[in-house]
């Protein structure tokens, strides 16, 4: 842990992304061009990429074939047949019976459907309609003509291609070899799933994300056992990986700290092309080459890791298979919140999208490089170019989709107060109908009301106490949304209180105790109903909030508050009973409040809102909440129009 | 082959698709609901579907962690630091060194970046800026809070989900078992790849398409050895398949012929729910149930097979994994050609799409149930409902996409005359840049000019001889497109002639010989430049075309003509030398003609047309054509503006 300043190389370069990628690809172009191809069975070729055009060997059909069950005839012998003038045909002279697919040979040149044939006896049939030449015959090559191109080079093979290739007599084809991607997780602090969890340890997960991404891109991942921060171990692993793969990823250790050996090793074994890229997240990236093979040092934060992979490894894996980057899966959306960025770097902002009133609303998610859940929740990515200082709320932006748009169109956008039940409702909605989703952003009750006013959400969970009337929610809706027809879908009654550590070691019994010097508090963000409740209680007791240590430390969910208390980084916080229970903490009740769902009346008939109401009224939901405790469900799902 | 009428059951029912699907799903609902789940390792869960919501076990980070390399301090000891008032801190008393990710424990509550620290000696550092409490510390649960939902039920697991699950301490999760789909190919006429090809035999390919589709949908295909049309063999295979799978597909034999045993067997072993569906293609479909398991009898034509799978098997495989059919990947397009349909059935029309002048143009592909290449070429599917008689040209239709729209937007739409080189150009374009594609429809030279006039194509290959001037193409462009700025990209000179069988067994030497009674001719479609050339030559010789047997039999490509001659179903046809050579046929030259590419001037600057020109001017293209023979390349790629 003795990491002194002088031992560090503090200075990374700040190369623009596009420039870095060009330098990189140009340098390993020779290796790319010489990438091996292989012949594989067509039957096993799903998802592989053709390395040359494939031309049919046979025609399909390869003979003139009957297209119907019926009889084969010479058209000329039927020309005068009519209802008034039926013609009799003799078997093996004038006709033969044929099934669909059977060959039609000379002298026959037409087929009459069995439904149009009257059988007289074993040998003779009668027809009452002329057959035109070649009717109901599939000519040779109707589907595929020999020597016709079935698929071009660089084509990703689909099931229908396999069918056509086989029909054209092709049983093997030349494809690009799957590029092998060596993945080396490093770091003394990482543990494998199942190993003992303790402070300072983190579960290694980036390499597993890389494995999945490599597979999805058609490559072959090759993960090595995690390597601790040890120069010699890392060196031998890199040499092995370079030997066994086309591309090598070294995860973490790519920065400039004393234990960051990647740069030193790539320099020693090959060449560092770029160290430090003008991107956020992802700056401490290394692009290098060893034995003409690409080596990428990727930073450790999961979000950085994802975007650096996406920016530098993905195009490489594609190139090894004759594919190009496809950046055109973009949609236009309106930005709901101002984003400030730096001129120093290109920034990747994860975006939550919602279709509200026909408009696609883009809401930025957490920008922390360590927040892997922001990738799980993201619907798309918005790229702020290096020379931009950011974008204002209300501007149109282009978002690269991470989910299909039709999924996004069926997502209920909920913005407002947090409660644990939002996760549960989201799950039950998805369980009922995997078409629908609930996307839930936690900005507090007032923030939710504002989001509805700006038409950025379908629904807002709120719990706002009107101190003058003692009534919940209604007066706030009237005040802030007086010009809109709104409804409250009644939610749950829930118990709020002070969350404290198990056994109450700091002897906290009331709000006054929060003023003690040894007590560290953790708060919710401004606009949260829970904070408004806290302030109301403090005011009632004439307590000056600024005297409470930690009053300024803001968390955005009940669970985050409970987690802070559970870990000992805070002694007390305010939140709901269910959060305290979930973290096995103690709880001093303050009172019961009404947590409802505010929704514009015009949305009440929408399928997604109907599903939402159905879910919260369901038996399953009630049972889950009863098990959790701390919730009242008498009026859940009732609708109250406000106005 | 003795298939008499009385042995057949000619009458299938004609149940509407939606009704049939409802009957089917309702009947096997119990089996669907009891579908097994299993626990698997998160590491192996890519693409699997969660069978319940997954909640985090640990928080991530699970401790307060340094977000930077630097020093951990007590914020309160730094409050008065400034440039004028630097503060000195002592190691292990006021601060400790920390690396990114290391735990921050009491009494420390802030981190100062190493870049902002001045090291005085081994024990002391100086700072010139106050640290605010909790700065550069990732609080417990910043990413994931214990008990938070990471993914809901029925969620298809992506690489980023794997990362978040592991970070949340989840190493195993419950997923739906992959539904096993038994695939039984049947038919005495089918052969396996590698078996000897002969008339009446076809290569079994549908089961391989099903395998691919099942895999793509997350199921597990289980293909059985092809079963000949034998009642007992088929029976034992069905019983085995029912035992080993959740769903069983029997391919071909689902109609009502004497050798179509599927219906009889499903009836005997279980229950036939529906036989005969109001759909085109795909009418002779069987939906049944044996031992509460779904059995689907699918007709043999590849296109029927595809759509019946898509309509009845796909929703089933999805349901077994908690997923729903997603029909919303649709675009609006303008229909370029009238489509007539019958009120009797719902029809699936394969569609080629092209982005011309901002408009998406939909051109129907071959509607033959046997044309598997129409599935390879299709960009989408247009469904004509059962109660519709069809759609007029120019109407807006909804097309369900089979390819991403951005791929379609980068496709050169070529409509016009056919030549073998179109395949080659298409391949070279795709090889140069897998982003771009060439879609080539063959409607003859005049058809191509009309398509450009209607703005349905980017480019039209034409070879039209002006009999009065002897000049090619220009006068036709002036006549039909006088109001548009057009250019001709010079293509190739090519030799046209009469294609005859090897060794010339029928003694054909000139056009006059086509009149002989024993000679069967095969023609090109109306509007084809080759047919215009033929008519010109016939007229010159005062030959009455109606006296030529087979003059009315129309093929749309040179290769189809050559294939007809090669197979002996015709003795002669007119076409290009390269087609005769490709099929190893003999050839009587008529003359050389100019095969050019007509293009609106405004498209000349487009990237895709530039790439087209680059490709036809390339050395690789010239070498391929020189090897094929029959082409002149003096002016290839030159541009002539017409007007």
From TrEMBL, chains A, B:
Its cofactor is Mg(2+). Belongs to the MoeA family. May be involved in the biosynthesis of molybdopterin. SUPFAM superfamilies: MoeA C-terminal domain-like (SSF63867), MoeA N-terminal region -like (SSF63882), Molybdenum cofactor biosynthesis proteins (SSF53218), Periplasmic binding protein-like II (SSF53850). It is an enzyme of class 2 (transferase). NCBIfam families: molyb_syn, PRK14498.1. PANTHER family: MOLYBDOPTERIN BIOSYNTHESIS PROTEIN (PTHR10192), MOLYBDOPTERIN MOLYBDENUMTRANSFERASE (PTHR10192:SF16). Keywords: Magnesium, Metal-binding, Molybdenum, Molybdenum cofactor biosynthesis, Transferase. Pathway: Cofactor biosynthesis; molybdopterin biosynthesis. Residues 182-319 form the MoaB/Mog domain. SMART domains: MoCF_biosynth. Its EC number is 2.10.1.1. PROSITE patterns: MOCF_BIOSYNTHESIS_2. One of its GO terms (cellular component) is cytosol. It holds the Pfam family MoeA_C. This is Molybdopterin molybdenumtransferase. It catalyses: adenylyl-molybdopterin + molybdate = Mo-molybdopterin + AMP + H(+). CDD domains: MoeA. One of its GO terms (biological process) is Mo-molybdopterin cofactor biosynthetic process. One of its GO terms (molecular function) is metal ion binding.
